[in-house]
Amino acid sequence: MSERSGGAPALSVRDLRVWYGTDRGPVRAVDGVSFDIEAGQTLGLVGESGCGKSTLGRALLGLLPAGSKTDGEILVDGTDLSSLPDKERRALRGSRMGMVFQEPMTRLNPLMRVSQMFDEALGANEPSLSKTERHDRALDVLRRMGIPPTRWSSYPHEFSGGMRQRIMIALALVLRPRFVVADEPTTALDVLVEAQIIRILADLRRDYDTAMLLITHNLGIVAEACDRVAVMYAGEIVEIGPAREVFGQPRHPYTRDLLGSTISLSTDGLRYIAGAPPDLVEPPPACRFHPRCPDAMRVCQERYPRWTSGPADTEAACWLLERDQLGEDEAAPLERERIADADEA
Amino acid sequence: MFARGSLTRYVLQRLLLTIPMVWLLLTLVFLLLRVAPGDPVSASLGGRLSEAALDERRAALGLDRPLFTQYLDYLNQVAHLDFGTTISDRTPILNVIRDNGGVTLTLGVAGMLVALLIGVPAGLLAARHRDGVSDTGIRLFGIVSYAAPVFFTGLLAQLFFAVKLDWFPTSGIASPVTKFQVEPITHIILLDAILQGDGGAFLEILHHLVLPGVTLGLLLSGVFIRLVRVNMLQTLQSDYVEAARARGVGERAVVWRHAFRNALVPFVTVLGLQIALLLSGAVLTETTFNLPGLGLQLVNYIEDRDYTAVQGIITLFALVVIAISIIVDIVNAFIDPRVRYS
Amino acid sequence: MTAASSSPEDVASKRGFLPRRVFVTPFTQTTGLARWILLAGVVLTLLFVVAAIFAPWIAPYGFDQKSAGGVNFPRAVPPNGTHIFGTNTQFYDVFSRVVWGARTAIEVVGLALVFALIIGVPLGLVSGYLGGWLDRILVLVNDTLFAFPSLLLAIVFAFLLSSRLGGGVIAAAVSLTVIYVPQYFRVVRSTTLSAREATYVEAARAMGARKLTIMRRYLFANVIQSVPVIGTLNAADAIGTLAALGFLGLGIQPTEASEWGYDLRRALADASAGIWWTSAFPGLAIVLLVTGLTLVGEGLNETLNPTLRRRRLRPVVLPPRSGQDSGEES
Predict the structure, then answer these.
(1) Which of B336, B306, B223, B310 is CA-nearest to residue B272?
(2) Rounded distance, CA A112 to CA B267, Å?
(3) Chain A partners of B332 at a C-beta cutoff of 8 Å?
(4) Cβ contact (<8 Å) for A109 and B262?
(5) Chain A within 8 Å of C319 (Cβ-Cβ)?
(6) For B152, which of C248, C249, C286 is closest by C-beta distance?
(7) Whole-Å CA distances, B127 to A106, A345, B289, C51, C312
């Protein structure tokens, strides 16, 4: 765990919003998200495809495409990244924050040797280092990732997918950033390799002080490698807390359904969540999950649910948790048309 | 025998694969020039010489023998770098090549240099400012410079810079005096002037080369602008560029070391194909500016209906094109390590 | 070029009816400057097509006419009231020659491309579908032809055909055909190759459909998409090559029709005398027509190849924060 107790978290996000412009209107990809990650901690970010987790990750690094607008605060060591001018923000990439991308096959320049990539990364972010120092640091990180020094001068295409991903992780960590965003780092890899990478990411918590945001749709990975988990739906976080607690005792209906639909050796029937993720241009009013929620009440489409704290430092936003404070009318079950088959994802 | 991924192995493989192509080209050239009715000798000299004299010429050129024998002879000759003799005055084509090849080579190099100097930076600039005014302007420039026939551009250049402004000569490679003075050592007149230490001749030749060189270069630059621009746009959007930016690599390094260098690879590949364009353009440029190169000779021989001469020069051009494409492939394998492994 | 293996229905519906895609979407999908440029290209091309079709009405004189109403034309006069582009050293009216030249160019190039299509497309289909040694030989021949300088190829063919077919439009068209066949062959073959492995073709084969039927019904539609772009760009190239042949004296013979390249060759000698109109106008015609065709081709490419398209960006305005919390840590 983190060596420093107390003090500011490594990464603090407040009310982050990312909207894209389209012909039909702005797409609210991320619509008011807040969380903290302490140094040395890993926060898993899970949700369906299209819920905005990737956008969130990119927004932290400032890697969003043209035509998007960001709002909110991203605090690293007390500095608000979003308020910085572009140039300064770019300068912080690498040294303060890093990213591990999804497809390792295309993320490494095919014409550069591994040695040159490390040289470049260290040279750009820590110019005071000598050549030998750079060499040593790089080799050290690579060794921890399981890449032998004999491969130092190899080209990317000489490595397998799993090894390339390890090189990418090494490239991010060698710069000792305050936090790293790992965007579906194992989705493109096969299961055995995936396990190795997840093991590496889990061990990182011990060796480095880096805070990590691990974005994935695979709940098993989160259970393996993350201290805390945030469940995201339609651009918002609906539940957050220590991974063990959230998975052991999910409090938000979406989290419950997500866990329920995971397939394991003990699965005897396929369960899925009815309906499809909502349109982010005109999301459902109030609680965005209410059209698909099996326990939806009338209040769910009228008023936004409030955050309620639960045991062991978990939080969830759901009216079900405050049922006792609702009037009889509000708590009545929500009448909806049956979800048409055509709406199924 | 050779390690996988070694350059030598790739070179050998490549050379081996070229042999069928060379053979095919030579066969095509041979067949094509036999397609015309009548025989080459009557076509070019008929009416000028007596029948007996014509027969003599035919025998000398081996045209009275069966077609297949002629074919084998042709292949044999080419293998020994003998390109035949002209019908009109029985000069060995090799001599024609020796005397005129230098000018074509010089013109080609000049054109290529100009094209690279204009095209590559322009393509880069266009890619950096995608969809901006400079991008559109540069693209339009590229399209128009390629659309304009090289002889038209040359004519306009002559009209304006030579006739009107009198800055450059309208034609020729050098004055007759200079041509007489410079000893043919390499038969490339520009080089010979250098080797002889004749600074005046050297400058004079350069002076004559400016208009034709720029004209030819402009034609090619259009192609280069597009190539560089498209490749740069692709590499600038690539995943590894984004990953590099995420690591904090400076924008300048990203553009040069990642985007540009990677964009050069497909560019160099296609560069070899431009030799074909360069040769075609050279033929037209030499005609426009009356430069004593192989292109002009080819045109003259065509007018004279001198089949063997045309065959000889076309054969040489074909071999040059293939040779250059091999060289380009090898250079490409040198730059891009992935190629050697396939 | 990415070849898509989708069924003909997919091609028609998913990406829009082909004529609509070719004619309408270039305008609706492109933005700002790109749209104007495409428009300019279309206008330029149409200008010459119209001139070609209506030449007998637009051109005041015949292409080899040296007099009118018993009066000889003046020799080499600059543009004036009677001869708006002037006359050349052979007493011809330059404007008429330019207009008739447009007809020659469009005729020859049109014919050449049709011939190239007729030869290249079926060859490519057959070669791609049947494979084997036939395919390998055809590919080798194709690559060899493709590597050779196109002008030289045209020169050789023109050189030979002039004795057989004369110096007219047909002969010139055939000389050009050979240059463009390889492109169609290559594109059609690669599309066929990828479409061949598509599951719906496998299903058809399983049902017992004959090879010809498969080729005709399923593969043809896929192939058709790439042809408009290549065709337009080839047309642009062909105009230039025809002019080059004319310049070298190998193209259309002056007795058959008016040709821009030939006029430029004649105009070479005029340069030193300061006579500019005999070269400027034919040359400009070539530049404008080729540019127009190229712009159209590029525009088509951007539409039919959606990866190159840039989507329109709309500005976003974020409303101020409502204070509604969503995930705030205590």
Answers:
(1) B223
(2) 18
(3) none
(4) yes
(5) no
(6) C286
(7) 21, 40, 35, 37, 19
8 A C-beta contact, residue B104 and residue B282: yes
Contact call for residues A94 and A88 (beta carbons, < 8 A): no
Q: For the CA atoms of chain A, what is the radius of gyration?
A: 21
Instruction: Give dist(CA C189, CA C210) in Å, integer.
Output: 19
* β-sheet with A79-80: strand ranges across: A27-37, A11-20, A68-76, A79-80
Give the pLDDT of residue A122. 93
> At C84, which amino acid appears?
I
B299: which 2 tokens?
Answer: 């045109």
Sequence length of chain C is 330
Are A202 and A236 contacting, i.e. CB atoms less than 8 angstroms apart? no
Q: Output phi, psi for B62, to 5 deg.
A: 75, 20
> Is B332's pLDDT higher than 80?
no
Tokens representing A123 are 């040279």
Residue B264 and residue B49 in contact, taking contact as beta carbons nearer than 8 Å: no
What is the per-residue pLDDT across C201-235, written as a single tens digit (0 to 9) for each? 677 778 777 766 765 666 666 666 778 888 899 99
Query: Pick from C156, C141, C183, C147: which is nearest to B323 by CA?
Result: C147
DSSP state of B92: B
Q: How far apart are the first and last CA of chain C?
A: 55
**pLDDT for C328 beyond 60:** no
User: Which has the closest alpha carbon to C7: C228, C198, C243?
Assistant: C198
Per the structure block, which two tokens stand in for B324?
A: 């250059």
β-strand pairing of A97-100 with A179-183: parallel
* Calpha distance C178→C157 (Å, rounded): 8
Sequence-separated (6 or more) residues with CB below 8 Å from residue B70? B30, B62, B63
Check: CB of residue A307 under 8 Å from CB of residue C325: yes
- R_g of chain C computed on alpha carbons: 25
**Measured between CA atoms, how close is C323 to chain A, in angstroms?**
9
Q: What residue ranges of chain A have pLDDT lower than 50?
A: 1-5, 342, 344-345
The Cα–Cα gap between A65 and A59 comes to: 10
Tokens coding B115:
């094209």
Average pLDDT over residues B82-108: 86
Per-state percent for chain A, helix, strand, coil, to nearest 5: 35, 20, 45
Q: What radius of gyration, in Å, describes the C-alpha atoms of chain B?
A: 24
Q: How many CB pairs (< 8 A) connect A and B?
A: 77
Q: For residue range A228-273, list pLDDT tens digits in order.
A: 999 999 999 999 999 999 998 999 999 988 888 777 777 777 777 7
Q: Which positions ≥6 away from A175 have C-beta within 8 Å? A: A94, A95, A98, A121, A122, A125, A126, B247, B248
Taking the C-alpha atoms of residue B198 and residue B203, their distance in angstroms, rounded to an integer, is 9
Q: How far is CA A139 from the centre of its chain?
A: 28
- In chain B, the residue whose alpha carbon lies closest to the alpha carbon of C32 is B131
Of B230, B274, B280, which to mutate for an interface test with C (greatest number of C Cβ within 10 Å)? B280
Distances (CA, A) of A62 to A31, B247, B248: 16, 12, 11
Per-residue pLDDT of A112-159, as tens digits, reads: 999 999 999 999 998 898 999 999 999 998 988 888 889 889 999 899
Location of structure tokens 């300048």: B252
Percentage of chain B beyond pLDDT 90 is: 30
Secondary structure (3-state) at A99: strand
Which one-letter amino acid corresponds to residue B320? V
Q: How far is A206 from chain C (nearest CA, A)?
A: 25
What residues are paired with A19 via a beta bridge?
A28, A69
End-to-end CA distance of chain A, in Å? 40
Name the band, by pLDDT with cuts 50, 70 and 90, for residue C143. confident
Residue of B131, B279, B310 with shortest CB distance to C149: B279
Beta carbons within 8 Å of A113's beta carbon, 6+ residues apart: A152, A153, A154, A155
ipTM, 2 dp: 0.86
